[in-house]
Design a protein that fits this description.
Strand order of the largest sheet: 2-1-3-4
Strand content: 15-25%
Distance between the termini: 62 Å
Radius of gyration: 28 Å
Shape: elongated
Structural class: alpha/beta
Length: 397
């Protein structure tokens, strides 16, 4: 790869994969001096289409001339091929995962959608217009092979399963439907719309949340979501180190410019390895991981996924536990007195109920820590209390 540090560089012609201002800033960041004309002091020239007299003068002076692919390689640190492949290993893994899920008796699939192939060259202008630079071969190959994809699945015995809302519909991911119908635990989602939707006028653009001129907002305005597995978790494209990479933020575009981005290939490999698990993606690439296990995983995600990636059965069981915990929380009364009483009873050593002359009930709870909880309940409060208690017990069993 060409080293431009401490060298005088000239750009000439039209570049389709990078905006001129972005290229000049990127070269300067790598230590080059960008000049406007070719002289004997010029170290090298990058030439695009229709280069004109600067190219002729460079040839006359014997100055090395490189094409746009070489310029992009310098800016991004990635070698570029002349054309992106029409296949991508993600889609092969996606098809294998769908076959495994369809064969599993405990799985309900709500959506499988595969985008149609497209011309990689047609994708470049979308990225250049939004980010100022073309994506690497990994991103181009992904969308060229299939312009988007979606997979939504869950456990058949998920307490939140609704045969109407979750009926199978093999169609492109509708962001509103995902947030409304598939939010919550025990849902496993891959939701990557066509690139025209990702980068087009109807994109989920975070700029509207970050309109001020402070450094954080300027940074966050660069993000465009491309995968929508949950309404509080959004992976997005961002330009980092001169190339388009992936970082994860929340539904309001809250991103952290101190947290490393990850290559696109690593992110999509993790999506398949974790079978669309929102929790696993969040632990690996989102905000602070919840356990030391995932903190360690961030040092070498590929090795971690090779050895620790979950099975379908493990995800189903985890999903069931999360769904039951969510349902138990939803069954808890809003009255703080009743909530405290139920929490005490679930770990109590003994409970007694005495009927009072005024129609109320006195509930005594001997807590496991030796303390006692007392509460007088009206008939309505006792009915709500007993209903919530039975619901939570049923969900625990």
């Amino acid at each position: 790869m060409i080293d431009v540090k401490d060298r005088i560089v000239v750009l000439t012609g039209t570049f389709t994969g990078v905006k001129r201002a972005v290229a000049e800033a990127g070269l300067a960041a790598k230590g080059a001096t960008v000049a406007g004309s070719v002289t004997k002091k010029t170290s090298l020239v990058f030439a695009g289409a229709d280069p004109g007299s600067k190219l002729e003068k460079a040839h006359a002076l014997g100055i090395p001339v490189h094409d746009e692919a070489a310029l992009l390689a310098v800016l991004t640190g990635e070698e570029r091929s002349s054309h992106a492949s029409s296949s991508h290993r993600f889609h092969e893994g996606f098809d294998r995962l769908v076959c495994e899920l369809e064969a599993h008796p405990g799985v309900h699939i709500a959506c499988v959608w595969r985008g149609v192939p497209c011309d990689p060259a047609s994708l470049v202008p979308h990225f250049v217009a939004r980010f100022g630079i073309a994506p690497g071969d990994a991103i181009l190959s992904f969308y060229a092979a299939r312009n988007g994809c979606a997979l939504i699945w869950m456990a058949k015995d998920n307490p939140q399963f609704d045969p109407v809302r979750h009926a199978r519909r093999d169609e492109p991911p509708m962001l509103g439907r995902i947030c409304d119908d598939f939010a919550g635990p025990s849902m496993f989602l891959i939701a990557m719309p066509p690139i025209e939707q990702v980068l087009g006028p109807h994109a989920l653009d975070y700029a509207k949340y970050h309109e001020s001129d402070d450094p954080f907002d300027r940074y966050a305005r660069n993000f465009i979501g491309f995968d929508f597995p949950g309404d509080y978790y959004t992976p997005a494209f961002v330009v980092e180190r001169g190339r388009i990479e992936v970082q994860v933020g929340d539904d309001h575009g809250v991103f952290d410019d101190g947290r490393p981005t990850v290559p696109f290939d690593l992110y999509v490999d993790a999506v398949i390895a974790t079978k669309g698990s929102i929790e696993w993606r969040s632990e690996l690439f989102g905000f602070a991981p919840s356990t030391p296990r995932f903190l360690e995983a961030r040092h070498d995600p590929r090795a971690f996924l090779a050895n620790e990636a979950p099975t379908i059965d493990e995800l189903l069981e985890t999903g069931r536990e999360e769904a039951r915990a969510s349902a138990r929380a939803a069954a808890m009364p809003t009255d703080p007195r009743l909530r405290a009483l139920i929490e005490a009873m679930e770990t109590a050593s003994s409970v007694s109920v005495e009927e009072q002359k005024d129609g109320r009930s006195l509930v005594r709870v001997q807590r496991a820590d030796g303390g006692r909880q007392l509460a007088f309940l009206t008939r309505d409060e006792r009915a709500a209390f007993e209903h919530a208690l039975e619901t939570r017990r049923a969900l625990r069993s």
